[in-house]
């Protein structure tokens, strides 16, 4: 579409019909026409929408002042706008409903959390700034909305010295605003949250190759740039020092904020994508281009955000460079590496040893630990199986304040992470995007023995005596473990697909979920070995009838008949027998 043209909108033609003032904060209608509202205008809009019994975008259609040039976004999308995008454009004009069911929210001020009370200056700066930009209304001695529901304030540290202010819309449990907001749908749209991942950037870098340039731009206080439906002002009250405030914009801590924000920024990424490579994670736009195109793409993205009325956090912008942080991971396209950000790595190395000293652990601490380790697994990919015992503890706890005995088994997960972070320093080579299928690699187990084949190489033998009475699933998993430990040191920095004729093993290798402690130990032993060589593993099922060579190896010593057939294959040169050392069946790491 033509980015310099725009269509007439409801905001332009209907502004005076609702009787709203032209005084107040300096802002615009969605078409760029100068419009200002007073506090009284916002409250009047609230009552009008509530009285209508419909969302503003469906009923009253009162245009809400915004700096966002909705007309320009609409024009740029043109005929390519999807039904969802057309709805999002409407919500930008008339405000985004919280999507909260009736009956939720508490009409009584709550005591703010300690993390808010302890940082009084940060809270007051946030409230003052929000009022100045009309992201909040107030302060009020008496709330202008009689049915106003309140949520407590809290804060968390940011990477700089500031605090991130959050409204705890999840309090009190069971009756909170967030309890009334669906996790699976927004209005009549199914929530499909397809956020880009670290893998998305890896795929792009592999397409371009070493030496390509990365860039990034961020929106400033992104949630606070998007109006909420005036009819929902009654759900967004906060209380500070005896005075009430009312949020008029999306807030950190509100369940629907992330989806609404991503719905807008995805439209902008779609438009920018015609001339630049863009990935967007909420308010964080990033991309990678060949050196000759990177600056133009970076500048185009910045121009587009400004043209569409989005405020950028210019101090966070990263001009094209060979090194950049994306979603907490440091990419280097010259060294061809990815690493945890140094500050985050140091933080983990400092508090993981302290965690090991705990005899009991609270739910809130477990959540923090798991959140950090899940993030770290974007780089240390084998680490995904070293959450299971911690997750097992977490599932037993209901409330954040509840605690549980920190078992030695669960501590082994933490210890593995600590040792691995120290050994690899939170760094690895950028992995390939393409999986390498080892089409001639297969394993098999019989009740007596094991067999593994890779091309013309084979392993065959009887299981150690301590495994004699185990079921076939465990023996199949032991066979995979031994084969990987015997052969995979030659596959450093690859993504490898292997073929197994046991569906239980395939599922375990791919998803890492089992209730069997022994199978979980096998999986941890495998992943610990793979981490040593930066190998990613995927398994595919192969029917037994197509796995005849590995099957023959697994039965080679179970009867004279099978041994004769096996020996015949050796003499024909079908494969060469490797010597497997029985320590390959040992659990070296005690995991």
TrEMBL record:
- Compositional bias of type Low complexity: which residue ranges? 17-35
Q: Which GO terms describe its biological process?
A: DNA biosynthetic process
Taxonomically, which superkingdom? Eukaryota
Name under which the protein is recorded: Reverse transcriptase domain-containing protein
Q: Which organism is it from?
A: Meganyctiphanes norvegica
By its UniProt entry, which SUPFAM superfamilies does this protein fall under? DNA/RNA polymerases
- Which stretches does the entry tag as region Disordered? 1-35
């Amino acid at each position: 579409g033509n980015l310099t043209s725009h269509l007439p909108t409801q905001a332009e033609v209907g502004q005076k019909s609702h009787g709203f003032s032209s005084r107040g904060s300096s802002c615009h209608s969605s078409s760029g026409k100068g419009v200002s509202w007073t506090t009284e205008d916002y409250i009047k809009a609230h009552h009008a929408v509530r009285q209508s019994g419909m969302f503003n975008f469906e009923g009253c259609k009162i245009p809400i002042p915004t700096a966002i040039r909705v007309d320009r976004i609409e024009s740029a999308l043109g005929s390519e706008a999807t039904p969802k995008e057309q709805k999002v454009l409407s919500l930008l004009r008339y405000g985004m409903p919280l999507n909260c069911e009736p009956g939720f929210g508490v009409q009584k001020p709550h005591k703010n959390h300690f993390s808010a009370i302890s940082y009084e200056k940060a809270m007051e700066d946030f409230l003052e700034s929000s009022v100045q930009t009309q992201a909040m209304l107030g302060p009020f001695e008496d709330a202008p909305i009689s049915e106003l529901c309140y949520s407590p304030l809290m804060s968390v540290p940011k990477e700089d010295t500031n605090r991130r202010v959050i409204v705890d819309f999840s309090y009190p449990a069971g009756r909170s605003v967030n309890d009334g907001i669906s996790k699976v749908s927004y209005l009549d749209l199914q929530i499909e949250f397809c956020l880009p991942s670290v893998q998305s950037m890896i795929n792009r870098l592999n397409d371009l190759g070493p030496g390509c340039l990365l860039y990034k731009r961020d929106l400033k206080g992104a949630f606070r740039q998007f109006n909420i439906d005036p009819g929902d002002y009654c759900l967004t009250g906060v209380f500070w020092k005896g005075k009430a405030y009312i949020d008029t914009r999306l807030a950190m801590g509100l369940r629907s904020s992330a989806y609404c924000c991503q719905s807008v920024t995805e439209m902008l990424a779609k438009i920018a994508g015609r001339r630049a490579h863009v990935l967007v994670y909420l308010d964080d736009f990033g991309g990678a281009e060949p050196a000759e195109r990177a600056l133009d793409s970076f500048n185009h993205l910045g121009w587009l955000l400004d043209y569409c009325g989005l405020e950028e956090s210019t101090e966070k912008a990263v001009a094209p460079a060979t090194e950049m942080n994306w979603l907490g991971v440091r990419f280097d396209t010259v060294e061809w590496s990815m690493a945890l950000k140094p500050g985050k790595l140091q933080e983990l190395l400092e508090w993981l040893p302290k965690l090991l000293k705990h005899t009991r652990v609270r739910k809130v601490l477990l959540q923090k630990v798991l959140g950090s380790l899940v993030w770290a697994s974007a780089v240390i990919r084998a680490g995904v199986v070293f959450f299971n015992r911690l997750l097992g503890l977490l599932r037993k706890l209901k409330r954040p304040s509840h605690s549980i005995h920190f078992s030695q088994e669960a501590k082994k997960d933490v210890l593995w992470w600590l040792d691995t972070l120290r050994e690899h320093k939170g760094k690895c080579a950028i992995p390939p995007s393409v999986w390498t299928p080892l089409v001639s690699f297969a394993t098999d187990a019989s009740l007596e023995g094991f067999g593994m084949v890779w091309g013309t190489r084979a392993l065959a033998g009887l299981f150690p005596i301590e495994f004699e009475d185990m079921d076939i699933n465990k023996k199949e998993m032991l066979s995979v473990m031994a084969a990987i430990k015997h052969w995979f040191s030659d596959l450093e920095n690859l993504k490898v697909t292997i073929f197994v004729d046991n569906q239980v093993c395939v599922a375990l290798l791919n998803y890492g979920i089992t209730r069997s402690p022994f199978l979980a130990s096998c999986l941890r032993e495998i992943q610990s070995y793979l981490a040593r060589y930066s190998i990613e593993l995927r398994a595919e099922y192969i029917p037994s009838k197509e796995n005849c060579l590995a099957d023959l190896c697994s039965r080679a010593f179970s009867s004279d008949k099978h041994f004769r057939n096996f020996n015949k294959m050796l003499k024909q040169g079908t494969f060469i027998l490797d010597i497997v050392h029985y320590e390959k069946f040992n659990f070296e790491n005690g995991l």
